[in-house]
Amino acid sequence: MAREIQREYQSNYIHPLKFALWVGIASIIMMFGAFTSAYIVRRAAGNWYEFKLPDVFWLSTITIILSSITLHASFRSFLHGIERRYKLMLILTLVLGLLFVVLQYAGWKAMTSMGATFTVNPSSSFVYVISGVHAAHVLGGITALIVALIHAFALPFKPTPRRRLRFELVVQYWHFVDILWVYLFIFFLVQSP
Helix (H, G, I), strand (E, B), or coil: what is residue 98? Predict the structure, then answer.
């Protein structure tokens, strides 16, 4: 009887690190929900500078989506024991993640050149703050990717449960920041003229 209860408990068990990640993700969702709600409320108050989001943000969106695809391919390769593809896709994911941040910066520069500076109007300030805070979360994900790369190249290739869990946490967080950016990008597009 005790063994059956223990087996049932283990099948319903959520690893504490995974649970902590999900709690963190939930708090980030609430923060960005507050940001986008504040954006909508402030826009309705008037004195709002309308501008079109620079096209470079389309490119950054495609880049982060591709990075999720390459990371998923890396994780699948890790699980199936395809070491070379696992490492290659992981490197490509890091490059795409860094490119996303560079493209975000290019988007901010394009906004500045069209007159939508950080201080000119709350409309542009919101875009800078929201996309900037998101970019900070992406940089956190890039740090996790660098650690995953160190594990990939410094440790012997062996998909142990512990390494799988660590990699799975990186994958889940990265997919989250990807989905979050797609939501924010669509939100900005819907709100723009």
Answer: helix
3-state secondary structure of 86: helix
> How far apart are alpha carbons 107 and 103 in whole angstroms?
6
56: Cβ–Cβ under 8 A, 6 or more apart, which residues? 103, 106, 107, 110
Host domain of residue 103: 20-40+53-191
- CA 185 to the chain's CA centroid: 13
3-state secondary structure of 48: coil
Q: How far is CA 49 from the centre of its chain?
A: 28
- Give the pLDDT score at 69: 98
pLDDT number for residue 116:
82
Question: Do 136 and 106 meet the contact criterion of CB atoms below 8 Å apart?
Answer: no
- Cα 166 to Cα 46: distance, rounded to the nearest angstrom: 47
Asked, for residue 145, whether it belongs to a domain, the answer is yes
Mean pLDDT of the chain: 90
Spell out the long-range contacts of 114-120 with Cβ–Cβ below 8 A and sequence spacing 24 or more: 114/51, 114/54, 115/51, 116/49, 116/51, 120/49
For 53-88, the pLDDT digits (tens) are 999 999 999 999 999 999 999 999 999 999 999 999
Do residues 118 and 128 touch, judged by C-beta distance below 8 A? yes
Closest CA to 134 of 172, 96, 183: 183
Residue 11 belongs to a domain: no
Q: Is residue 4 part of a domain?
A: no
